[in-house]
Amino acid sequence: MNKILEGVHEFRTQVYPEQKAFYKRLAAKKQKPMALFITCSDSRVLPNIITNTEPGDLFQIRNAGNLVPPYGASLGGEVATIEYAVTQLKIKHLIICGHSQCGAMQALLKNNIPDDLMGVKAWFQHAQSTRQIVRRKHARKSGHALHVAATEENVLVQVNNLSTHPCVAVGLSSGDIHIYGWYYDIASGVIRQFDQSQGKFVDLEKTALGTSPMPIREW
Ligand SMILES: [Zn+2]
């Protein structure tokens, strides 16, 4: 805890004074984030750092496994945050980002969550399709390759779940909303995006330089 308290002190006495004008500007107007960024709670995945963005740029949902309950499955924080992001903040770009070495994906693959972790078990129901797709489609994979495949498949499952929310579906049908599926590799810093035309995740750096990345859900 000491390191955190020291950090609070350093922010207050060193970082903030240097950026005071920026924070005053942030507070003076309504937030206008560029994207809704949905990712895992994993402490190694920091949306603002991996996208080199600033406070105010990304509206975020973080949970174990970057899951999105499909519409009607639950009325919790995720649903409320999606509705607020799309209808009130008018966010047009929705990113779902899975990551390497994801403990949630590991647990999903092992399928041995202890019975006393009722919350975790219930939460992972939103990734049941991922489990079945992986079992059917990636049966011959193991180790790292299996983990990557599961994480990527899970991103696509959650993209589908996200598109079941009426406010998102309306935006997709009018072409106002775009959804992107990402995979972030912690060790290399590489972000890959699902490319529908190629049917696979490709390095954003190689595909998107100078062009807009192609969303995977857009009609
Ligand atoms: Zn994770």
CATH H-level homologous superfamily name: Carbonic anhydrase
Count of helices?
10
Shape: globular
Low-confidence stretches: none
Give me the count of strands. 6
Structural class: alpha/beta
Query: Average pLDDT, to the nearest integer?
Result: 92
What are the SSEs and their pairings?
Layout: H1 2-18, H2 20-28, E1 35-40, H3 47-50, E2 58-63, H4 77-88, E3 93-99, H5 103-110, H6 118-123, H7 128-137, H8 143-162, H9 166-174, E4 178-184, E5 191-195, E6 200-203, H10 204-207
Parallel strand pairs: 1-2, 1-3, 3-4
Antiparallel strand pairs: 4-5, 5-6
Helix pairs in contact: 7-8
The structure holds zinc ion.
Q: Which features characterize this protein?
A:
single chain, six-stranded mixed beta sheet, 6 strands, 219 residues, 10 helices
Characterize the structure shown:
Helix content is 45%, strand content 16%. It is an alpha/beta fold. The protein has a single domain (31-207), classed as Beta-carbonic Anhydrase, Chain A. Strands 2-1-3-4-5-6 form a six-stranded mixed β-sheet. Helix 7 (128-137) packs across helix 8. The protein starts with a helix and ends in a 12-residue tail after the last helix. The mean pLDDT is 92. The structure holds zinc ion. Zinc ion binds at residues 40, 42, 65, 99, 102-104.
Can you summarize this structure?
This protein is α/β, with parallel strands linked by helices and 219 residues long. 45% of the residues lie in helices and 16% in strands. Strand 1, helix 3 and strand 2 form a beta-alpha-beta unit.
